[in-house]
């Protein structure tokens, strides 16, 4: 199944309208393995931007790091509560000696955001390359708090003399208390940026302009175990962000509903990228819903898949798997529109990775036509909201 490209995540991880999709999951790890139905296609695991582990680990600032100074400025253009364009100007860029620079914090979607650059590259960069990362933090700033948010973003180094030569890269990521930084270790060649003939440096004070265009997903979810799940301890969980509360025991049967409250903001984004739900438990695995747009035989479709996603990367977790019967749904939000929900059913074995030939993701490129999904009278996208 062709899948939009995705940034590379070195540590484990990664809708604007009310996109509510139900995943009904009767399952057990002891069930025999079986191939999926012909309508369910394996999805290639995307890979490009990376996480900055040193910052996620909470490395304290030292003499080799510097925050924003008087020679720098940050201007934020707010398009909505969940969308903003940050413009970070750094003066005297060729003479910077610090290993890393942070911008000032700016708020998007209730989260604190800032940019982080390594002018001469971080420890993962190729020689001669500049590294840039987006960092998102919970404004509560407490070590014990768990939080999670999905963001689509574009980082760019602008060329004021010729905008067509600006360097920009796009990505998406689910940021969390453990994975706060995401970006590119080899963002751009430092020699190119410093070459006065190429026009990246402003002639007045040798400054460069770095921009970040950020969209934050406004989402909520609910998760419930079926009554006949014998290991059912926590019957239901409701969340307003991306963090799933503690669930006792393996979940053998249940329902996860994901509501996207600003899906309309992401309608263009999903043509090249995807939005991903928070992770929820299923047997020995953790799963999530992914939604994006695909062209099939010249027709634009809403695509939807179920992906395995382990929250911890280690040898023990990589061996875990679950055989799963599942239903994926797009919910109709019109009053009394329950009979108009769209459902598709399938099955397959999910694993942490596909080294053994099993699936990390299953779903449909042609789940439903985009025209039917976004149609004003259809009831699937209402006031920018959608539910899966």
UniProtKB/TrEMBL annotation:
Matching InterPro entries: MATH/TRAF_dom, TRAF-like
Signal peptide start and end residues: none
A Pfam family: MATH_2
Top-level taxon of origin: Eukaryota
The organism of origin for this protein: Abeliophyllum distichum
Domain MATH: 83-214, 253-388
Stored PANTHER family: TRAF-LIKE FAMILY PROTEIN
The protein, known as: TRAF-like family protein
Gene3D superfamilies: Apoptosis, Tumor Necrosis Factor Receptor Associated Protein 2, Chain A
